Amino acid sequence: MLLPILLVLASGMCHAVWSMFTKRSLNKSIFLWLIMMVSTVLLLPVLLIELWTQPLAAGAYALLLLSVALQALYSWLLSITYEMGDLSQIYPVMRGTSTLLIPLIGVIFLKESLSVYGWIGICCMLGGFAVLSGIGARRSLPASSAPGTPLGYYTPVLMALCVGLCTTCYVFVDKLNLQHMSPLALLEVTNIGFVAGLTPAVLRSRKLLEEWRRNKFTILLGSVLNPGSYLLFLFALQQAPLAHISPLREIGTIFATLLGVLLLKERQGLRRMICSVVIFCGILLIGIWG
Fold first, then answer.
1. Rounded Cα–Cα distance for residues 41 and 82 (Å)
2. What is the full DSSP assignment across 170-191?
3. Higher pLDDT, 68 or 170
4. Dihedral sign for Cα atoms in the order 275, 277, 282, 283
């Protein structure tokens, strides 16, 4: 069990670092598109060879198309969310949403039950989300959150919740896809969907070269960390149940908040750091004892 735990922790760290690079970029859509293109091009032969030598059933192809669609929606939502909020504000919400939603869906719709620790975990996460949304601290929220609109102060966190919902869906679908194909081939499928979701915005912007000139080194590093983070998670999924290792990956919430506060100099540092720790504790309570 030690190896999948180490893989998941490394996955969380890699995810937090490339997310910080994205937040620092000029154009989030272009930056995300560029860091995914390297692995997309390199892994395309792997996918084609595997599909040629090991044809899938019609239902399996349908699941792959669903994974592509979810990744496209995810990448589009992700780029917009990074434009709106601070990394230390939106990242813990994006990463914690799936852990919050899965048990709530089970209790409400499937008549399942949670332990006392599970309910404490849910309360921790809801409290952390509420504080990060800016309740009681409107003046300190980013100007990009459009305070002139009724939900403007809470828009970054609402968008982060949508990203988290999309993540919940594609992780479940990809867990099923791993029954039919290798992690590398599946990673290429998700890459294709991710790039497809950002391509329209990239074509409209016409700032591809400018982004490359300003951030080529972080783009190259991000091109390794972005797919690498999910590949590490897929390898871990092959060796351990999803329910056991998924909560541990969310230690990235603490990593990302630290990066946002210390390197990006984002505001409300102590408040957001405490929130990220509370949310991570809630994730562990639900995932391990809930």
1. 25
2. HHHHHHHHTTTS-HHHHHHHHH
3. 68
4. positive
